[in-house]
């Protein structure tokens, strides 16, 4: 007894429906195989030695801004100092909600070499004698002529003899603000 099977006749589509069905089955098998081998590929990739280049960290990278240390001044926090192409901006915030103002022409910034920089603007704070309400932790700023390079500290103060908008008004003053850790552009 012998069994003869003609394989060619098994693969001949008897009609269009079977061809469509064969394509769908083939696609399903391919998708299943891709799904099956994908986890092995990720395991293989994680076992391969890293080809990522390790570059040394840049030392003393220049940045436009630098965080300022905490200095004692009731209700006012120095936040950061930033250089723009033409100026230096000092950002501050209030620790509590408060009214505030400054006279732009009565703010002094002096560096550790004795040079005094002119204030050229303010943002987020009223120009005295006008007063504005500033919510706590809201940034406002004073802008000055651009600082020289290589400084270690600055002094920042409002003129203590400027006219007070209210009798209980206090002017702000900070001495020896360290900027030696800054590498401003």
Structure description:
- The chain has 185 residues and is of the alpha+beta class.
- It is built from two helices and eleven strands; from the N terminus they run ααβββββββββββ.
- The strands form two sheets. It has an eight-stranded antiparallel β-sheet, with no helix packed on it.
- The relative contact order is 0.16.
Could you outline the blueprint of secondary structure elements for this entry?
Elements: H1 7-11, H2 16-47, E1 65-67, E2 76-83, E3 87-94, E4 98-102, E5 107-111, E6 116-123, E7 126-127, E8 132-134, E9 140-145, E10 153-158, E11 173-178
Parallel strand pairs: 4-7
Antiparallel strand pairs: 1-2, 2-3, 3-9, 4-8, 5-6, 5-10, 6-9, 10-11
Give the overall form.
Answer: elongated
**Amount of helix:** 10-25%
As residue ranges, the low-confidence spans are 1-10, 42-60
Side-by-side strand order of the widest sheet = 1-2-3-9-6-5-10-11
The H-and-E topology, N to C, reads as HHEEEEEEEEEEE
List keywords for this structure.
eight-stranded antiparallel sheet, 185 residues, three-stranded mixed sheet, disordered N terminus, alpha+beta, elongated, single chain
Quick structural overview:
The chain is α+β, with helices and mostly antiparallel strands and 185 residues long. The chain has helices at 7-11, 16-47; strands spanning 65-67, 76-83, 87-94, 98-102, 107-111, 116-123, 126-127, 132-134, 140-145, 153-158, 173-178.
């Amino acid at each position: 007894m012998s069994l003869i099977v003609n394989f060619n006749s098994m693969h001949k589509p008897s009609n269009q429906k079977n061809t469509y069905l064969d394509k769908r089955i083939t696609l399903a098998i391919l998708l299943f195989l891709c799904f099956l081998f994908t986890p092995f590929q990720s395991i293989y990739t994680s076992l391969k030695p890293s080809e990522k280049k390790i570059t040394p960290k840049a030392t003393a990278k220049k940045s436009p801004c630098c965080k300022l240390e905490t200095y004692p001044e009731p209700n006012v926090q120095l936040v950061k100092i930033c250089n723009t192409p033409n100026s230096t901006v000092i950002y501050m915030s209030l620790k509590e909600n408060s009214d505030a103002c400054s006279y732009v022409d009565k703010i002094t910034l002096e560096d550790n070499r004795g040079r005094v920089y002119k204030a050229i603007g303010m943002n987020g704070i009223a120009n005295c004698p006008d007063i504005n309400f500033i919510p706590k932790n809201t940034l406002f700023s004073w802008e000055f002529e651009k600082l020289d390079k290589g400084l270690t500290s600055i002094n920042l103060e409002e003129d203590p003899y400027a006219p007070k908008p209210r009798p209980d008004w206090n002017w702000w003053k900070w001495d020896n603000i360290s900027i030696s850790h800054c590498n401003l552009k």
